[in-house]
Amino acid sequence: MSKLTWYTVFLFIFLPFFLNGQNSAHYWLDKAEVEINPAGNRVIIPNVYRTIESDTISLKNIIAQAPHETEVAAKNSNTILTVPMPDGTSEDFRIVLYDMMESDLSAEYPVIKTGYGISTGKDLASIRFDWTYRGFHAFIRTADHTVFIDPYSFDDKVHYVSYYKKDYPAPEAPFTCHLETPSTGTDIFQPVEKSGDCVFRSYRLAIATTGQYSNYHGASNSSQSSLVLSAVTTTMNRVNGVYEQDVTIRMVLIANTTNVFYYNGSTDPYSNNNAGAMLNENQTTLNNVIGSANYDIGHVFGTGGGGVAWLGVPCTSNKAKGVTGSSNPVGDPFDIDYVAHEMGHQWGANHTQNNNCNRNNSTAMEPGSASTIMGYAGICSPNIQSNSDAYFHGVSIQEMNNYIVNSNGNNCDVPIAGFSNSAPTVSAGSNYTIPASTPFVLTAVGSDPDLDPITYCWEQWDNEVNNTMPPTAFNTQGPVFRSFFATSSPQRYFPNLNDLVNNVTPTWEVLPAVSRNMEFRVTARDFNGTAGCTDEDNMIVMVNSGAGPFAVTDPNLPTTWTEGQSETVTWDVAGTTNAPVSCANVDILLSYDGGFTYPVTLASGVPNSGSANVTVPIGTSITARVMVICSDNIFFDISNNNFTIDQASFPDYTMSVSPTERTACGDENAVFSIDVGSLLGYSSPVSLSVSGLPFGVATSFSSNPVTPGNSSTLTISNLNFVPGGTYTLTIQASSATGMKSVNVDLTVLPVPQSITLQLPADNGVDVNLMPTLTWQTDINANLYHVQVATDIGFTNLIVNTTTMSTFLNVDTELLPNTKYYWRVRGYNQSCDGPWATTRIFNTLPCTSFFSGTDVVIPSFGAVDAMLNISHTGDATDINVNNISGTHSFVGDLTFLLIAPDNTQVTLLSNECGGDDNFNFGFDDQSSLTNIPCPPTTGQIFQPVGNLSDFAGSQINGTWRLRIDDNASGDGGMLDEWEIRICAINSTLLPVELISFDAKALDRSIILNWSTALEIDNAGFEIERKAETENEFKTIGWVEGKGNNSLETSYYDFEDKNVAPGIIYYYRLRQLDFDGKETYSEIRSATLQESGEGFLIFPNPVTEMLNVHCLKDISENIPVSVTDIQGRVVLATEMQDCQMSLDLSSLASGVYILKIANQQHRVIKD
């Protein structure tokens, strides 16, 4: 054969193969494994996989053509990447590139590209991919599977394996994780923030590698750093994919992370097989090589020692304390089970497994070894599965979002520009009581303001120590249901519907046979295509062992039904009509596909009696099932086996009515839909009628008679005067083949009458800020709708809620001295009564009194800061706000508030140990009970004692804030504090002053003040008294805002008629329109005398304090710094007109700077 002929035959044989490849993508071809000669070691060997060959040039070109995420959203990208799936199909994705490396690093290693995309055809399918010096890698999520594509062998960039995650073997070497919690005094697990704030944050990531890790990936020296960076990139690209979706953060490799890639395990700074030792080694190494200011989170990869991390450390001085070591540091187990897990600890997440391996009590929400990232999947028997699923449990999301949004994680992030996303909303629904040993289904209701698709993940939310693992039906606490991947369906069946259909009792989904409560959380994730955002809601399922199991009994074995015939469905009621389950009615549903979907309702709202007759609808099946589900509950059962529905044997008609139970208010109409079906072409008209109607009602049919295949609507009206109750009606149909009838229940509800309001009285005054509203009972109402507003039109609602009681304790503090409108109306199930006649009440006045005078806290003993209140009245509510100051070892201090009558309440005592400084406030009504450490957040907390102990006390006199230092050696300074008093029978004016300051400028003194509330405020007289004068004199007038209760008002006044060197005292005389008056605290200021004085900055100071004189000096001036105990800590002389003092070695606190005969207060941070 000639060469020409041989080539012709070759092309003829292989042309169809290449064409088939081009139909999906010309850069992927199936390749028999026997034809692949491995290039390098094989380290990723799934149990089952598809082998493919790539045209690397075409594949790289497609990736290179992809736009950057800042240019276009992935869903709008025109670059399509086709990838081979394990089942022989392919999937197309619209892709974009993103920056996982800082620009300098990317420029140094231009081959490396990272990207993501969303499917062109499958909902909720996404891809993360990279091209590195090791070739192509992809991580694909669909609604049903997790898929990976990795190189066939280490040095092969042409051949690849495509495989399902489930087909990847469990790691041979066990992995251990040791969580270390820093003793910072801060409770990481504070359920303040759950869903996050949807801000897409980026953090600078420094990854170090041990010599052993680098050697594993083929690098023996720094010239081969690209191989190490390739491995790190693939791992972090997959890790980022999870973190971006669940907690909206991205970690970006810093430009010089390769400086901490090491290549000799004997000389590198790490103990490769000792993860605990590497914690401090990594912190020291990254700080020394990278610099603490140049990264936000650090981690080290090794090949031994397992994993260990500190809890909640990014953006702190411990931010590099994270270690992951594995003998096989590649693939999904390393990326997700190990790295994502250990970094999860760093971001504040604890373990979620509920067994005896490193169990964390507050977050042990998953049975066994757990299946989500923060569990111990495969390494802590009994195991649910070998590897973790690539998502976080809801409790992990909550913990990490707490850290990222509300804690230190919010101190060093950089929001990603151009990203905008709104959180979805989700409701878990009501709580329910169900019978024991009975399946149930939970259904969420969710929406997204951006119209993004939503996924739902239902998880059990019980963390008690479980009696037995795997769980049994007799476990009275703890989790008995495992977590599953989120799906697009808002429903989750318990157990899994597939197991119910196949009569399988799953090991990790167990229906309780005992009385117990189970809490569940649904987490809604929006599928934004770039980064997700979440919302969540909880509900409780209460199991009652006095009822159940509720079970379908017929049809339960193979049987045959016929279209159009009447059949009987039976079930075991099992005590479910009794309280507390109280299921009066059930719905009967029909499945044609073996029990997976139930599109047909055979009966709705029929009595839960254990038996009901149904008409078999049109439609045949050999895999029919029946579901009986409680009408107003979540429990159900299905047929154990498929049965058959045969075609009708003669022409006839069918009739079905929906609903079979209708509730209507007396002022409404009741409507029923009647469907008339045709069997085998039956077309004779069908006449309709109804009997059993209560006296006086009117009825009408939209069509009568009805041609089979059509429907009619029955409307029942004139229910206004029908006595409340349930009426059984019979809807009859008549045609040539005979009569049929369906019974329906009509419940008429009487409409509630107008409600009579009781307290507060109309136009009542001095009403508490959290009042109790009361009204008279209406016998026709089982629920009351209550509204409180600041306007007569009720457009600015303050309270808008419902209650079953005839009173409501308002749990939102109202504004003081404000007029409110309130009203109530009754509900009878769905029937609204009329609103009651609106009433008005006025809240009592409240005023804040504040002190900005510095008070020295001695090194040992107590000091009292004084506030004198000249007003009279009986206290009803007292808050203490803005207590701020400096003191090392705050744990030495006790804070007390003492009234003029010597009643005292402990606010705080011996909290936060060695932490420095304080800034907080106290209110009995605060929801915050745990003080964060250091206590400098400015938040309002519940006091140790009860401020309500002051209720009824006379407010007139001197109030004292006592600070007791219980240990010697440390002093400090109280900078300011404030007390807000609400009182009845008082002389308090309806103007709440929240700040007042006097500040000397070059040639004048400026006064600034602000108010939080103004009612009828005419304005402020400015009064001044020089130190040489005996009385205050009016020097100006500032007009007030009149009435302003919605926002803070700001005022200022400049006094230009002042002389240097004189102390001026100022106060405000606030005047009401009716002539009432009140005075502010007194403030003072002094202009520097001409030719004297010094400029001192910055203050507070961290390191260098600068001192400049305002006039040239002719001789050396002594300068010293003393601490609060009077000890000299620095002494020198000023030799010219400026100098700098190095205070960096001093502890944080208050110091006195003495220059000649002048003293200046300096705060050292």
Explain this structure to me?
With 1165 residues, the chain is mainly beta. The chain has 9 domains: 28-167, no CATH class; 177-184 and 191-406, Collagenase (Catalytic Domain), CATH 3.40.390; 420-544, Sandwich (Immunoglobulin-like), CATH 2.60.40; 551-646, Immunoglobulin-like (Sandwich), CATH 2.60.40; 652-749, Immunoglobulin-like, CATH 2.60.40; 757-843, Sandwich (Immunoglobulin-like), CATH 2.60.40; 846-988, Sandwich (Jelly Rolls); 992-1087, Immunoglobulins (Immunoglobulin-like, Sandwich); and more. It contains 9 helices and 76 strands. The chain has a 9-stranded antiparallel β-sheet with strand order 1-2-9-8-7-6-5-4-3, with helices on both faces. A hairpin with a 2-residue loop joins β75 (1149-1155) and β76. α5 packs across α7.
Can you tell me the CATH superfamily of the largest domain? Collagenase (Catalytic Domain)
Measured by DSSP, the beta-strand proportion falls in 35-45%
> What class do helices, strands and sheet pairing give?
mainly beta
At CATH level 3, the topology of the largest domain is Collagenase (Catalytic Domain)
End-to-end C-alpha gap: 91 Å
CATH architecture of the largest domain: 3-Layer(aba) Sandwich
Short description:
The chain is mainly beta and 1165 residues long. It contains 9 helices and 76 strands.
Features:
single chain, 9 domains, Immunoglobulin-like, 1165 residues, nine-stranded antiparallel sheet, Collagenase (Catalytic Domain), seven-stranded mixed sheet, 9 helices
Topology (SSEs and partners):
Blueprint: H1 3-24, E1 28-30, E2 50-54, H2 56-65, E3 80-84, E4 90-98, H3 103-108, E5 113-119, E6 126-132, E7 135-141, E8 146-151, E9 159-164, E10 177-180, E11 201-209, H4 211-216, H5 225-247, E12 249-253, H6 275-289, E13 297-302, E14 307-310, E15 322-325, H7 331-346, E16 353-354, E17 366-367, H8 394-406, E18 414-415, E19 425-427, E20 432-435, E21 440-443, E22 445-447, E23 454-460, E24 491-494, H9 497-501, E25 516-526, E26 534-544, E27 551-554, E28 560-562, E29 566-572, E30 585-591, E31 600-607, E32 611-615, E33 621-630, E34 636-638, E35 643-646, E36 652-658, E37 661-665, E38 670-679, E39 687-691, E40 698-701, E41 711-717, E42 725-735, E43 738-749, E44 757-759, E45 764-767, E46 772-775, E47 783-789, E48 797-803, E49 807-809, E50 819-828, E51 831-832, E52 839-843, E53 846-851, E54 855-857, E55 861-869, E56 874-887, E57 893-898, E58 904-909, E59 918-922, E60 940-941, E61 957-965, E62 972-984, E63 991-1000, E64 1005-1026, E65 1033-1044, E66 1049-1055, E67 1063-1072, E68 1077-1079, E69 1083-1086, E70 1094-1097, E71 1104-1109, ...
Parallel strand pairs: 10-14, 11-12, 11-13, 13-15, 16-17, 20-26, 28-35, 37-43, 45-52, 59-60
Antiparallel strand pairs: 1-2, 2-9, 3-4, 4-5, 5-6, 6-7, 7-8, 8-9, 11-18, 14-15, 19-22, 21-24, 23-25, 25-26, 27-29, 29-32, 30-31, 30-33, 33-34, 33-35, 36-38, 38-41, 39-42, 40-41, 42-43, 44-46, 46-49, 47-48, 47-50, 50-51, 50-52, 53-62, 54-62, 55-61, 56-59, 56-62, 57-58, 57-61, 63-64, 64-65, ...
